[in-house]
């Protein structure tokens, strides 16, 4: 399991030029389609748990608690507040366990032999998991001299752009060092705002799923 520490930023026509000027190396461009799943009552997302399938692989993002003791100055804690931290679980049995903690399976596994894809289908239907969001992203990725920092420029198919500065940590890894790397990179990119920037899901739900969006806003998940 790893922890993703990420700061989103508004990207514009100058972002590519700035990345070039600060010596970022382009890792290439790729395209992927994401499908996000939840129950009709939003059991997972109301717990800030995000279950997704990308390129045939399942992934669950769960919140992790910020370690305030690591933030020694006001500036550090402001910088930390700009970042999100999520545990990323990619192992399907572990994902199923986490989901089970939130949603009680309606009925037990059947004993009959089934293929992995039939088992996934059955798991989804037992847990009443339905796809609530589906969109395609074109992503340009860059790496910086700063070790372990990746910058992604995303363009979603519903006309939304966002940049992300990202560090991936092993669980229990040095969070403060990750936050410092993100802060230094934000400085190099000339990012000045002190408000969290909305991501693709935020924009998608606002436009396409007003009831879901309102529930998450009222519970301070988004
Ligand atoms: C965690 C989360 C969601 C799941 C999607 O996460 P995100 O990192 O935005 O997507 P993406 O495509 O960049 O994934 P990657 O390729 O990096 O794995 S949707 C909403 N959240 C919660 C959330 C939040 N509350 N605030 C911010 C700034 N981001 C995400």
TrEMBL record:
Gene Ontology terms describing biological process: thiamine diphosphate metabolic process
Source organism, top-level taxon: Eukaryota
Gene3D superfamilies: Hypothetical Protein Pfu-838710-001
InterPro entries in the record: CYTH-like_dom_sf, CYTH_domain, THTPA
GO terms for MF: magnesium ion binding; thiamine triphosphate phosphatase activity
Domain CYTH, chain residue ranges per copy: 2-208
Name of this protein: Thiamine-triphosphatase isoform X1
Organism the protein comes from: Notothenia coriiceps (black rockcod)
């Amino acid at each position: 399991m790893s922890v993703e520490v990420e700061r989103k930023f508004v990207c514009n026509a100058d972002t590519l030029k700035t990345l070039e000027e600060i010596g970022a190396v382009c890792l290439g461009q790729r395209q992927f389609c994401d499908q996000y799943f939840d129950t009709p009552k939003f059991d997972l997302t109301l717990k800030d748990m995000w279950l997704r399938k990308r390129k045939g692989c399942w992934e669950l993002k769960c919140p992790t608690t910020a370690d305030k003791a690591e933030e020694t100055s006001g500036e550090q804690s402001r910088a930390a507040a700009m970042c999100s931290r999520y545990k990323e679980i990619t192992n399907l049995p572990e994902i199923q366990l986490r989901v089970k903690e939130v949603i009680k399976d309606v009925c037990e596994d059947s004993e009959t032999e089934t293929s992995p894809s039939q088992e996934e289908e059955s798991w989804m239907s037992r847990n009443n998991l339905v796809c609530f969001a589906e969109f395609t992203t074109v992503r340009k990725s860059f790496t910086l001299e700063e070790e372990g920092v990746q910058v992604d420029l995303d363009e979603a198919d519903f006309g939304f752009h966002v940049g992300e500065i990202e560090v991936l940590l092993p669980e229990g890894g040095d969070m403060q060092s990750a936050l410092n790397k993100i802060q230094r990179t934000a400085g190099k990119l000339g990012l000045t705002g002190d408000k969290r920037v909305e991501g693709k899901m935020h924009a998608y739900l606002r436009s396409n799923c007003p009831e879901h969006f309102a529930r998450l806003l009222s519970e301070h998940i988004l």
